[in-house]
Structures are given as C-alpha cells and as structure tokens.
C-alpha cells in the first residue's frame, strides 16, 4: 500500500497539517496516514493524554482489563446507539475479520456478500473482487467473484458473493438466490472514501437482510468520524446494522479497531454465557491497549467540541469546491467527490455510483495530476483519496489550489 513508483516520499517528521521528507521538503499533508490523523500530526491534547496515561499507570499495557476499555466502549455506545456491546482489536482488518466470523458462527453459514471494489482489509476472504478488470468481471448487475491476490483459494472465491453498489434490484435478486448460504453482507457505506451508498439503497438492504436472516455489517473504518458530524454515515441516514466496525480515528494515531453489535449477535463471543464449543473465539494480547485508547479518547474529546466539525467541514468544502472550480474553469474532465473530510479525485464526467463508474476514469490524467502535485509540495498517496484535518488552514488550502491550478493548466 505504501509503495508507488519510482519510490514514495520518505517522511522525516510531521506537525499539524504538514509533513517534511528526508531532504527537508515541506508538504501540506493530505495523506494523514491514510486517514487516522483527523486532528493533524502531534495534536497537543492527544500527546498530553498519552504521557498522562503512561505516567499515571506506570506501564503502557497491563494484560488484564482496564478502565479505559470501559470508557471507550461507553463512548462508542453513546455515539452508536444500536450497539449493546463493544470489543477491541488492533486494526480495522481484524475488526472486519471478527465481525464476519461472528456472523458465520451465529448463522452457521459460511458465505459472505461484499461489494465489487470494496476494501475490508488484506485477508483473502475479502480481497475478492477488490480491483477486478471490468472486462473479466461479468455483467454489471451480476458481478463475478475474482481473485484479488495470488493466495486466494477456490473455496474463498466460491464462498464470496459479489454485489453491485447502489443497484438494489440486482442485490435483492442475488441475495435471495443465496438466502440459505450467506451469513453476512458487509458494506462500506462510503466505499473507498468517496462512493456513497444512497440512503434508500441502504434502507432497502436493511429490509432485505432482515427478511432473509442475513446479518448486516457496516464497515465504517474509513467513514467513521469523517462525515459532516460526529459519528458515521449510518448516523446521517438512520440505518442501523447488526454489526459495525471502526478503526483509524479511534486510535488517535495508533493501531486500533473495534467491532460493535447488538447483544444477541455479540453473545456469540461471550465466555460467560457460552461454553468454548458454542463460542466464536476472539482474543489478542494488545486488544484494548491503554495508550492507544488514551489517544483515541482524547481525539474524540476534541471532535466533540462544538467548533470542531464546523471548522473541518469549512476547510474540506473550500478545498473540494476549489478543485472542482478549477476543473470546470479549465474544462478538464475531473471532479473531487466524497462526503465530509474525505474525497477522491476522479478524471471522468458523470455520477460516480459504483466501482465500474470509477473504473472509467482516466488513470493517465490522474497520474499527471498526482505527480505534479507531489512535486509542488502537496502530499498524498497517488490514486488514493485525500483527507483533511482540523490543523489545515486557509493558507494550506490556498497553497494547494495554487499548485493545482499550475498543474492543471499544463494538463489542459
């Protein structure tokens, strides 16, 4: 993930919304470690919380349960009212892995449904149809399951049902055809940070999965806390899943993940109510790490301050709108699209509703834009979404748009 040709920028240090490379070059940073640094690098309240935890507790980790696990769980339950119980992991990958395992254990079924082009972590079961060649992927309303890694087994391909985003009729037909085999449908409500699931589409999926006895899993690892207000996309549209996964931001810059669910669903991992033979196993030495949760709680504290989201939304809109104005003024087929404080840049016209729409984008134009911006001190990962943070300033946005205008004029 970190690599791009001929070699990526190697970081030396970072502060706020900026990053410096090994040669001392200053960049405005829109990678932000692929999204977690929503407060920017080195936020003083997060650093203070880390130091206090280590000084207070005398260690960075205990082994047995501790207070911060309960405090973070209570905080997440307040933000996501559907959830009765919370468990922690060390990454978003682990969170989706365990949510799927719980669904398979509860339902005693072993197929899962996922969406074409969606990313849920780097394990084989969900790497199916990650970036498939459209020419090989079958009909748009009935995508084929294609391997996303040389390690994908025939069994994993057979047990993964691939769906088209924002096509409810097609999804319903596919899900009903596998109604007795699918344990869970897992979806990024904002796929890859910019392809937004229509509210009515999500509501329809909720009805269908409930009717068919399929557990609905929302992967809000990227969209969690990056929408227009505290919470995730589900809070905006009022659709509640059976399970959800979080990561990135709740660790405050450290590795962290969580899966949340209803009491009925989460009981599958309960060592009090279930013997080992009737339980889905979940464990991990570093789950619920005290230093990680201290940083995460401090991050949520700042996000809950009244002025945080209005400012973040304003900065994000200025940048996104400024880029779109440049595309329009220079008559280039580009658009900056995505909700809240995350968006992607796609060199294609028309609405972007699913993977196949995005796959039509001109990759050569995107590459010219990406490398031109990197050369002008704007840092992000080529061909991936941009993220804004509360440390970005109007001056940062102006610098970015000036660089973008220079690059785009040469491309026009």
Protein model, in words:
By secondary structure, the chain is α/β, with parallel strands linked by helices. The protein folds into 2 domains: 11-30 and 307-411, Alpha-Beta Complex (Aspartate Aminotransferase, domain 1); 45-303, Aspartate Aminotransferase, domain 2, CATH 3.40.640.10. Helix content is 37%, strand content 16%. It contains 13 helices and 16 strands. The protein has helices at residues 44-57, 67-79, 92-107, 154-158, 168-177, 199-212, 233-237, 263-266, 290-303, 308-329, 355-359, 363-375, 394-411; strands spanning 11-15, 18-21, 26-29, 85-89, 111-115, 160-163, 182-187, 190-191, 195-196, 215-219, 243-247, 257-261, 335-337, 342-346, 378-379, 386-387. Strands 4-12-11-10-7-5-6 form a 7-stranded mixed beta sheet, with helices on both faces. Helix 5 packs parallel to helix 6. The radius of gyration is 21 Å and the shape is globular. The model has no long low-confidence stretch (mean pLDDT 97).
Outline the fold blueprint.
Blueprint: E1 11-15, E2 18-21, E3 26-29, H1 44-57, H2 67-79, E4 85-89, H3 92-107, E5 111-115, H4 154-158, E6 160-163, H5 168-177, E7 182-187, E8 190-191, E9 195-196, H6 199-212, E10 215-219, H7 233-237, E11 243-247, E12 257-261, H8 263-266, H9 290-303, H10 308-329, E13 335-337, E14 342-346, H11 355-359, H12 363-375, E15 378-379, E16 386-387, H13 394-411
């Amino acid at each position: 993930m970190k690599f791009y040709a001929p070699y990526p920028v190697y970081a030396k240090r970072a502060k706020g919304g900026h990053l410096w490379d090994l040669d001392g070059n200053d960049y405005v940073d829109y990678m932000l470690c692929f999204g977690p640094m929503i407060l920017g690098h080195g936020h003083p309240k997060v650093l203070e919380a880390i130091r206090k935890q280590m000084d207070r507790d005398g260690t960075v980790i205990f082994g047995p349960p501790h207070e911060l696990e309960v405090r973070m769980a209570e905080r997440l339950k307040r933000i996501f009212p559907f959830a009765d119980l919370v468990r922690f992991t060390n990454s978003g990958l682990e969170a989706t892995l365990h949510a799927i395992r719980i669904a398979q254990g509860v339902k005693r079924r072993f197929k899962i449904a996922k969406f074409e082009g969606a990313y849920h972590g780097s394990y084989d079961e969900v790497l199916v149809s990650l970036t498939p060649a459209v020419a090989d992927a079958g009909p748009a309303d009935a995508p084929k399951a294609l391997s996303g890694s040389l390690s994908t087994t025939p069994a994993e391909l057979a047990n993964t049902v691939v769906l088209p985003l924002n096509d409810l009729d097609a999804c319903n037909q596919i899900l009903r055809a596998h109604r007795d085999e699918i344990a869970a449908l897992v979806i990024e409500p904002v796929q890859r940070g910019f392809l937004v699931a229509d509210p009515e589409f999500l509501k329809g999926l909720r009805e269908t999965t409930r009717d068919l006895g399929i557990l609905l899993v929302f992967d809000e690892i990227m969209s969690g806390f990056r929408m227009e207000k505290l919470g995730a996309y589900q809070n905006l549209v009022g659709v509640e899943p059976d399970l959800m996964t979080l990561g990135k931001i709740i660790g405050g810059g450290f590795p962290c993940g969580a899966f949340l669910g209803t009491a009925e669903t989460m009981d599958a991992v309960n060592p009090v109510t279930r013997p080992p033979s009737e339980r889905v196993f979940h464990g991990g030495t570093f789950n619920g790490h005290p230093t990680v949760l201290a940083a995460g709680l401090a991050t949520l504290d700042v996000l809950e301050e009244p002025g945080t989201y209005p400012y973040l939304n304003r900065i994000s809109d200025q940048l996104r709108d400024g880029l779109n104005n440049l595309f329009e003024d220079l008559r280039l087929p580009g658009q900056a699209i995505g909700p809240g404080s995350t968006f992607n840049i796609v060199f294609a016209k028309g609405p972007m509703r699913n993977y196949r729409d995005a796959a039509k984008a001109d990759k050569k134009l995107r590459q010219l834009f990406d490398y031109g911006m990197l050369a002008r001190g704007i840092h992000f990962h080529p061909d991936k979404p941009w993220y804004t943070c509360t440390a970005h300033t109007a001056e940062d946005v102006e610098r970015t748009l000036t660089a973008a205008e220079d690059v785009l004029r040469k491309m026009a």
